[in-house]
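Working notes for the structural subgroup meeting. M.R. asked for a predicted model of this chain before we commit to crystallization trials. I am recording the input and output together here so anyone reviewing the notebook later can reproduce the run.

Input as submitted:
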Amino acid sequence: MISAQQKNQKQPMMAQRRRSHLCLLLMILLVFSEGRRCVAQTNPFKPTTESPFRKKADSPFTPVPSDSNDSSADQQDGAPQSNRPSRSAKKFRHGKYVPVKSPEGGWSYTPGQLTPLEYEPERVDVAEIDFPERIKQFCVNRPGTLGAITAQRPQGNTQIKVMDFLEGEVVASIVTPKELLVLDVDDSGQRLVLVSDKYGFGEKREIGTFLVNDSVLVEESMFIPFPDLRVPDLDVVSADFVGDHHLLIVSFSGRVSLWDLEKLREECGFDLNSRGSKIQVVSGPDPDVVAFADKEQFGLFDIRRQEFLGVSPIPEGMTSPQIAVSPSGTRLVLAESEKAIVIDAINGQIQEEIPLPAGPLTRVEFANDDFLLVSSQSLISISDRMLLWTYIGAENSVSVHGTTFFMMGGSSAKGTVIPKTLPDPQAVDALETAHSQPDLFVVRPGDSVQIDVSKVPSQFRPQVQAALEQALHDRELSVADKSDVVMTASITGPEQKVVEYSQFGRGGGASGYVVSEFVSTLEILWKGQVAWRKERTNAPGSITPKKGQSIQDILREKTSQPNLRLFAQAGFPRYVRKPEGKSAESKESLGQSNIEGLF
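Returned structure, recorded in token form:
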């Protein structure tokens, strides 16, 4: 029992407690609201007061119409009307699904009449690229009129520079605390596609299109192209403007989706195999046709007709090649590690196999239809199958319509973009001189070569001999009974070995399998010295078991014979350099140029 006096003494204490509880509640609400405010500000696409990205009042994009039978898609009265699909939409309607297969009549593609650049692009000196880290992304639109540079710091802060190559100047410069990446610039030069570049699975799920307007980027649309995929499969890895008003988007899992930007909805899609390897989908000079390559196949897809023009298996020995399209659209190239394979885009047949210089392969592109530019520095003559020239100073490059846009690196020229037609006159002179020099090459068209297949098992000798004779004939070389230059083929094995193969997905991991390994070797010797050499085993680089097949059964079948394709697809250069001392094949170019000095 509490007396009245005790109650009076307790009342101030209870009031004080209530005030403390109220203060604590207010603090919790304040922290919660601050937390929500912070989360909102870290959304890379949510506008902030200091954001350079402005919302366009009247978007040209129309929302996806609601399904009258889907009540979840209805909006409440008075709710703001969105100009894009809801990010939390419960129902996503796919466009037409297109199976990845070659047409019934086989590979067939007829390139349109494509012309080179109709103007002389100007150099652009990009000022105030003040971030110490390297520039992360560089892209140029299909006509070569506009480009964009994205630079980032590790913990955020994105700097975007939009360049006009007609005028030779920067037309928009934006710095934002958001982590963004410019993926492409459309043909008209008025629109960019951006993706969140925040680290973490699922952080790159949303992309947006923005207009370049008064030195700022005006938001035009934002959407999640793969809402039905799981993390991390729904992350966007690339997006290209194609057709008249379409965007081709590729997910981490290999789904390729064609979006109509006027209706802001998916029109069609197909799936590529990206397990354990990267895939590439690239646009070429024809805005209606894209090329693709994954770990199993490569081909062409027609955007307007929404069908495949050709699909073929990737060449043996490749696991995840890069792919590029020539300026005329008549050639493709698949490149990986130490070799590039040139493909006839009209029929899908292999034209050339070219050795690549040592070092990491960062990118491959056609400088023009007859020359490849590898890793923004090594120029390779396709017809000669040789490393011609080395260009120094570029951090990145993009080649369109026979013009290469070099983005310069280094502290003094960071961000400077220099357009150049390759090969430059100095490289052309060096090539013409090299063709006429008697002491630079040990093999050149018109020479005689001896073939030695004595180290090939007798049952395979006729097949190997015929393959090498054909390879020499294709390079305008003749077969001699005796010569200082000897092409030597050998096959050793079989030898029981354990090879590891990785399985991807749930329960994946590497396991060892026993194979009967044969080693096939092809060498070009000059007076006993190795001038060129290639070696392959018969173990496949990757395998895809079908239902009911075991990996061991597939390996037993595939490794029962030696690798004879090495001899059928010899891939040696038309011009083979003389070996220097005791070293093997020379991979040095005929010369080099500093790109700054070419302008």
